[in-house]
Fold this protein.
Amino acid sequence: MPRLAVYACCTCVLALAAAGMAFARGQWAGIVWVLLAGFSSNVAWFYLRRDRAEGRAPGRPAAAGPQPAAGAASCGSGAACGLCLKKTC
């Protein structure tokens, strides 16, 4: 599970607890906590879906970055290496 998703889940749980306490005391400011809980749950869902779309297994770190294809020219040669957005490096 991505670290930011864990933080967002913790924020969601704490915001829901704060909203419950605020409403129990009769304060309408709990609505702000409910909105924060909704936002943080959406953030957690986003990071979980992004992690799943990248195809990473749970607990496996992200790759260091794109790797050049076997036999590809290096950027110093002036040929396209496939690692940058330019056609030639």
Remarks:
- Residues 8 and 42 are 9 Å apart (CA to CA).
- The chain has two helices and no strands.
